[in-house]
Amino acid sequence: MIRKNYRLLNLFNGLADIVLNGVAVLLAYITRFIFLGEDLVRQPYHLYLVVAVFYALFMSFVYAMSHMYEPGRTRSYLNYISGILRANIIGILVLGVLLYLVRFVDFSRLVLLFVFVYSTVFVVGKHWLVRYLFRRY
Question: Given phi > 0 = left and psi -120 to 50 = alpha, else beta, which region is 103?
């Protein structure tokens, strides 16, 4: 029974991380090109959608390889946050290298910074909310 519940929790965490990382890329795009007032004609959003899907799926893989989906009863919260930070740094570096290799020159580096910040805040916030709900109920 406990093993089945951990599988369901890990499935929820994986799907939530995919959604949150995809939203982080799209929110970074909106922040950069709408709120900071850049011309949208030169920056087509459909290319950022492709990057959002790739980044979200890739980050779920990186989190799994970083052991973020293992039972964390003995893990401290700061240890979990440092693991997320390491995984997000790896993800942003890989994304930057891949964008360079495929010669995607119109991708904003400021968007990469916003993606890192939003992704970290969203995933840490999700983890805090799940921990809070499990301790409360």
Answer: left
